[in-house]
Write a structure and sequence with these properties.
The complex is a heterodimer of chains A (295) and B (216). By secondary structure, chain A is of the alpha/beta class. Chain A has a domain of 146 residues: TIM Barrel, CATH 3.20.20.220. Helix content of chain A is 40%, strand content 15%. Chain A has eleven helices and eight strands. In chain A, helix 9 packs antiparallel against helix 10. Chain A is globular. By secondary structure, chain B is of the alpha/beta class. The longest helix of chain B is centred in the N-terminal third of the chain and has 18 residues. In chain B, 29% of the residues lie in helices and 23% in strands. The chains are: A alpha/beta (295), B alpha/beta (216). At the A-B interface, helix 5 and helix 6 of A face helix 7 of B.
Chain lengths: 295, 216
């Protein structure tokens, strides 16, 4: 069985997490394959929650599968699709199924997804969701009522180290810590100087662990697309050139090498406490990234 | 002010299909100012409908009238003789105007010629922007006079989401990120501490829908 993630964070080791995405439908074959591939190679596996506002098999369902197969899951919860009653109910349920880690997110906007006419809920925001976890741990609910059986979670959040402007993002980062965030998984970072600048600020919170987000670059086209379309992600030109210069059919290999190199540098220079690897549909190559990083 | 826009002509034509005598009713207040339902728009819409009837050979009569405000009974009282001569009213008021008119003249169908959009202000010529959601619990004193409930697409209370991009919103690069604006204004006012404080979840009991208020 995997070690509880909260203990791993406190151990001082270089923490490695990755993520899996539930399927659009009930065929769990690929999801289970990815879980089996990752569960013994990383410290914990995130499960995305209707990622990019696209309806999928529920994150809580997939975290249970990870648990059943001996892995350590991190339940991603967004505020987009459920009001405070549903969020609390899901947290109670997840706890009873052995889930002990939760990543609290606002969630993407509805119009970026595949149900564009749906209502975005956002009854709570990510700071209030973190606070909600801590209230449930105290044996109360958000209505002030007593719980018959409380919960206990290792709660985390996200931060975008390269957001422009950065100042409002840093204020929210501090509010998340005050609300109970124990760890952060960052938006993808490729420029390590920018990451170091963010870490100079973040290091004042000694007890909070920061895992740098590593998104696998599969091609120069993907890098350019993210630069144009994904807020807070900036792939430097030299990495785009490196991908573009790869031999035909080798761009993905180059992307794996780039990810491995970034992770190795982050670890060797102790820039942050660990990494969170997002392969976005190519979870099968995460072991290759780890190998390239020397992990 | 309440901002609205005219429904597509085809939708309006379909709506009045079964009626032979239609009163096109404008409103001289909000929807006149947002160029959707004042006397000019009543005239333009009515002539378009007449032209369409001419082309299709449809025999239908139209009356045109604009009241100062459709949302108060005292202003629509002047319609009481005219409505006896029509079998439908096509309102170019907001949703409040349509319902006020319908309650006053319940025997006659009142049809919405507009889609009511939001409470807002004219930002520049022919551009209106939403400013207020009528949430019943105003926090503008704490957010630099910029409403995050309305102007943040997610209505967030504790700062920007990760979708903010160079001061713009992830849902539309033409729209400002409300929390970037709030940050900039509070910084200018030397009141950034307001942004650092924790805002608890909203109280949706501040206005219980449908809203009703009685002056003591």
């Amino acid at each position: 069985m995997a070690k509880p993630f909260g203990e791993v964070l406190k151990s001082g080791k270089f923490v490695v997490t990755s993520e899996v995405a539930p399927p659009k439908g009930t065929n769990l074959e690929e999801l289970l394959h990815h879980i089996d591939l990752l569960k013994d190679k990383v410290d914990a596996i995130n499960v995305t929650d209707n990622q990019s506002s696209v309806m999928r098999f529920p994150s809580v369902g997939a975290t249970i599968l990870i648990k059943e197969r001996g892995g350590e899951p991190i339940l991603q919860m967004t505020c987009r699709d459920r009001n405070r009653l549903a969020l609390q109910a899901d947290i109670l349920f997840a706890y009873t199924r052995g889930i002990r880690n939760v990543l609290c997110l606002t969630g993407d906007s509805i119009p970026v997804g595949d149900h564009k006419e749906a209502k975005g809920v956002f009854d709570l925001d990510s700071v209030q969701l973190l606070n909600m976890i801590r209230i449930l741990e105290s044996g109360k609910d958000l209505g002030g009522n007593d719980l018959d059986g409380a919960v206990e979670f290792c709660a985390g959040a996200i931060v975008t180290p390269e957001a422009r402007p950065i100042e409002p993002q840093l204020i929210k980062f501090e509010k998340k810590i005050a609300a109970g965030a124990e760890f952060f998984q960052t938006q993808a970072v490729y420029d390590l100087d920018n990451l170091k600048r963010f870490m100079e600020f973040a290091r004042r919170y000694e007890n909070v662990k920061i895992l740098a987000g590593i998104v696998l670059l599969a091609s120069a086209g993907m890098a350019r697309y993210m630069n144009q379309n994904v807020p807070g992600i900036f792939v430097p030109q030299d990495l785009i050139d490196e991908l573009a210069g790869a031999e035909k059919g080798k761009a993905l290999q180059t992307g794996i090498q780039i990810a491995g190199r970034l992770i190795r540098t982050i670890k060797e220079e102790s820039i942050c406490d660990g990494v969170h690897i997002m392969a976005i549909g190519r979870e099968g190559v995460v072991p290759d990234i780890l190998a390239a990083a020397g992990l | 002010m309440i901002v609205a826009k005219q429904k597509p002509l085809e939708e309006i034509k379909e709506m009045i299909e079964d009626y032979k005598k239609v009163l096109v009713l404008g409103c001289g207040t909000c929807t006149a100012i947002c160029l959707a339902g004042g006397d000019k728009e009543v005239a333009v819409l009515t002539s378009s409908l007449r032209l369409a009837d001419k082309v299709s050979g449809n025999k239908r009569t139209f009356k045109e009238h604009t009241v100062e405000r459709q949302c108060e009974w005292e202003f629509i009282e002047e319609l009481k003789e005219q409505v006896k001569e029509v079998d439908a009213i096509l309102s170019l008021g907001c949703g409040v105007g349509v319902q006020t008119t319908s309650e006053r003249f319940p025997e006659i169908p009142v049809l919405p010629g507009l889609d009511t959009l939001f409470m807002g202000m004219p930002q520049q010529e022919r551009v209106w922007v939403e400013q207020c959601s009528g949430c019943g619990n105003c926090i503008l004193d704490q957010t630099g006079g910029i409403c995050p409930i309305t102007r943040c697409t997610k209505g967030l209370l504790n700062g920007p989401c990760g979708g903010t991009n160079d001061g713009k919103c992830e849902v539309d690069p033409e729209k400002d990120c409300a929390w970037t604006l709030i940050y900039q204004r509070l910084e200018k006012q030397g009141k950034l501490d307001l942004m650092r404080q924790y805002y608890p979840p909203r109280n949706f009991q501040a206005v219980v829908r449908p809203g009703k208020v009685t002056m003591e």
